[in-house]
């Protein structure tokens, strides 16, 4: 149990640091790579919680598809790779105040909703049931999202292409 707590703390710290770098770095490719660290850390947290299916889906969908789509979009639209100071403004303190306010509201809401409830210790993950529902009941929406991502990639290629 102690090793899991230490692993959770290390992974959580890596997620927080990488998330801060996502929004503070001036290089868009570096921001995408920091996003990879954040999403991989979230997948690792799912594995620590014993949710192997969700962790694997996190890796396959977000790391395998969404981040690749971001990187293709960055490369195809010829976004400036070097940071530009003109993209920054002086509203960081306002953003920090709003972030702290939202943290307080969300913390109050979660504490008020769940108070002293404990999670059941004997939860059994039914990966087969989740997979069956995704690939039977929700097969059409699953494929529609796949086609939508493909259309977005083709659209990025068309927009970035020189005439």
By CATH reckoning, the class would read Mainly Alpha
* Distinct helical segment count: 6
Q: Which residue ranges are poorly predicted, with pLDDT under 50 across at least 5 consecutive positions?
A: none
Question: Which descriptor suits the 3D outline?
Answer: globular
Estimate the mean pLDDT confidence: 84
The H-and-E topology, N to C, reads as HHHHHH
Work out the helicity level.
over 70%
What amount of the residues lies in strands?
under 5%
- How many angstroms does the end-to-end distance come to? 60 Å
The name CATH uses for the topology is: Four Helix Bundle (Hemerythrin (Met), subunit A)
Largest sheet: none
From the coordinates shown, what is the CATH architecture? Up-down Bundle
At the fourth CATH level, what is the homologous superfamily? NADH-ubiquinone/plastoquinone oxidoreductase chain 6, subunit NuoJ
How does the helix and strand content classify structurally? mainly alpha
Mind telling me the C-alpha Rg?
20 Å
As for the number of domains, it is 1
Q: Tell how many strands the DSSP assignment holds.
A: 0
Describe what you observe in this structure.
It is a single chain. The chain has 163 residues and is mainly alpha-helical. It has one domain: NADH-ubiquinone/plastoquinone oxidoreductase chain 6, subunit NuoJ (Four Helix Bundle (Hemerythrin (Met), subunit A), Up-down Bundle), CATH 1.20.120.1200. It is 77% helix and 0% strand. It contains 6 helices and no strands. It has helices spanning 2-24, 28-48, 52-76, 92-114, 127-137, 139-160. Helix 3 (52-76) packs parallel to helix 6 (139-160). It is globular and about 60 Å long. The model has no long low-confidence stretch (mean pLDDT 84).
């Amino acid at each position: 149990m102690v090793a899991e707590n230490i692993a959770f703390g290390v992974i959580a710290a890596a997620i927080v640091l990488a998330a801060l770098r996502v929004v503070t770095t001036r290089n868009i490719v570096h921001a995408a790579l920091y996003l990879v660290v954040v999403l991989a850390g979230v997948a690792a947290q799912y594995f620590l919680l014993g949710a192997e299916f969700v962790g694997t889906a996190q890796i396959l969908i977000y790391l395998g598809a969404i981040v690749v789509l971001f990187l293709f979009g960055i490369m195809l639209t010829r976004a400036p790779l070097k940071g530009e100071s003109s993209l920054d403004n002086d509203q960081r303190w306002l953003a920090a105040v709003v972030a702290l306010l939202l943290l307080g509201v969300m913390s109050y809401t979660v504490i008020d909703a769940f108070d002293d409830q404990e999670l059941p210790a004997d939860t059994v993950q039914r990966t087969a049931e989740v997979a069956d529902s995704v690939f039977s009941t929700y097969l059409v929406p699953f494929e529609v999202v796949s086609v939508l991502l493909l259309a977005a990639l083709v659209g990025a290629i068309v927009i970035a292409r020189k005439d």
